[in-house]
Amino acid sequence: MKRTLLPALGASLMISACATMPAQDSTPAAEASLDVKTMKEVTRTLSSDAFEGRMPGSPGEEKTVAYLIERFKAAGLTPGNRGSWVQNVPLVEITGKNFAPLTVKGGAQPMAFQFGKDWVGVTYREDKATALKDSELVFVGYGVVAPERNWNDYAGVDMRGKTAVILVNDPDFGAETLEGPFNGKAMTYYGRWTYKYEEAARQGAAGAIIIHDTAPAAYGWNVVESSWSGPQAYAQRGPDAPPLTMMNGWVQKGVAQKILTSAGKDLASLTTAARRQGFRPVPLGLTVSTNFQSDIRKFQSRNVIGMLPGSGAPDEYVMHTAHWDHLGRCTPAPDGDDICNGAVDNATGTAALVALAEAHHKAGPARRSLVFLAVTAEESGLLGADYYAANPVFPLSQTVGGINMDAFLIAGPARDVTVVGPGKSELDSYLNAALVADGRVATPNPKPEAGYYYRSDHFAFAKRGVPMLYIDGGEDLVKGGRAAGEAIAGDYTENRYHGPNDEYDPNWDWSGVMADLQLYYRIGRSLAETSAWPNWVPGDEFRAIRDKDCAASPSGC
């Protein structure tokens, strides 16, 4: 998860609802009976050192899953997977070790860069030893192949055995509006690192190295270092799985500048060229090498699923998602603490599943069934959510929509909420109604260039056509306004996000979180009581998928 940072904006605006959504279908539910004690207890427990950072496949997972089942039972839920509380998710854990320097040759002098400080790298292959040797470096701009946009950053180059050097984000980064070949300042999926590695592999590359830059990445090098060192979990691969590179990695921007200077090139000039249609890859006349070993372990991780059966349409489902996992043990803090506890990210969101389940159970059965899904391996690339969406317990054509909860930053009450990906679906009308009922407003995501909509578990459902809302906490704080909100969010991102300092604080002010939970409750309850099937707005990238899915299912939407 990545926390958004709000700059000062003009007046907040309401997200416009689609005209096809009848007003009565989005009437907000009554206020919920939500227990702040539950939020505190679950967050404190899951983020304690005893859970060791909740790494999938670790003893911390065993404790987490057992605890969630206990809390789901106590909240009044029933097992959600045909009598079982869990869905097994087959993963492989690859832990790199004994990293050699990243060496670059072919320039005036050989260069060697230190693992962690200068570069990080992993292999997705289940190989005990990885050796990238004298692989030719090719600058491929943003690494995008998008025929529908007449764009090919790999045009005319055979990447077999070579290593792609890739810019982070997409070619429209830095745009001031939402107009452009890649949606202007709103990042597309082409800007995500996951896509870049996938495309490099499709091109036959031996390696792929992304140039880290804080602004277009939307996080600092500290996040890259902590997230890409230590054990890495991936989905187990079948016999017909897509190809993989030998090594995927990142380099610091300063390292990239040194490499390109050695090749007689300039990073700024190449970046400018890569933003223009017709860009062609640039062989650098340099080679790169490194090697490392890997410990490999296959295991079953688990999604935890509970539900409240509906009274009128039990075979129609409203989804609530949050990821229970975090990074486990990671780069130590100066005091030696190496447990990434993940209190905010995402013990808070997991606690919210329990608190909402309690509230819905107290309110009695809704017309539709309510599903509470705590997924694994979000930090490894949305693996648990993606596995569920690819192997759904409840058919996606019968899944009405849902809400995702990923990290409640504790900042006190706010006048607004941040909507990530506003204007995408008819779920906006449910949000609008809930906001009016609570006397708050919505602020659209102020950093669409960061691609937050593609960076949490809802995306696994959205790309398969299920409308999902992703709402972040507001930062127009009652005490201090946007300046205070920016300061709190900035402090979290710089000093605690994906690090050992993301720990529970008994002095936290939970009032803002509980106000946000009221919104989630009203939205979920309204969806569960209506007979409407909200869709993506016309022209949205996911609309055709939903329409096709619905047309093929006589019992679904």
Mind sketching the topology for me?
Layout: H1 36-46, H2 59-74, E1 78-79, E2 86-97, E3 102-105, E4 111-113, E5 119-122, E6 129-139, E7 145-146, E8 151-152, E9 163-167, H3 193-202, E10 207-211, H4 214-217, H5 221-227, E11 232-235, E12 247-251, H6 253-262, H7 267-274, E13 282-308, E14 313-323, E15 328-329, E16 339-340, H8 343-363, E17 368-375, H9 383-390, E18 399-404, E19 416-419, H10 427-438, E20 441-444, H11 458-462, E21 468-473, H12 481-495, H13 511-529, H14 543-551
Parallel strand pairs: 6-9, 9-10, 10-12, 14-17, 14-18, 18-21, 19-20
Antiparallel strand pairs: 1-13, 2-11, 2-13, 3-4, 3-13, 5-12, 6-13, 7-8, 13-17, 15-16, 19-21
Helix pairs in contact: 1-8, 8-13, 10-13
Describe the protein.
By secondary structure, the chain is α/β, with parallel strands linked by helices. The chain has two domains: 23-91 and 300-551, Aminopeptidase (3-Layer(aba) Sandwich); 94-296, Glucose Oxidase, domain 1 (3-Layer(bba) Sandwich). The chain is built from 14 helices and 21 strands. The protein has helices at 36-46, 59-74, 193-202, 214-217, 221-227, 253-262, 267-274, 343-363, 383-390, 427-438, 458-462, 481-495, 511-529, 543-551; strands spanning 78-79, 86-97, 102-105, 111-113, 119-122, 129-139, 145-146, 151-152, 163-167, 207-211, 232-235, 247-251, 282-308, 313-323, 328-329, 339-340, 368-375, 399-404, 416-419, 441-444, 468-473. It has a 17-stranded mixed β-sheet that branches. A hairpin with a 5-residue loop joins β3 (102-105) and β4 (111-113). α8 crosses α13. The radius of gyration is 23 Å and the shape is globular. The chain starts with 35 loop residues before the first helix and ends in a 6-residue tail after the last helix.
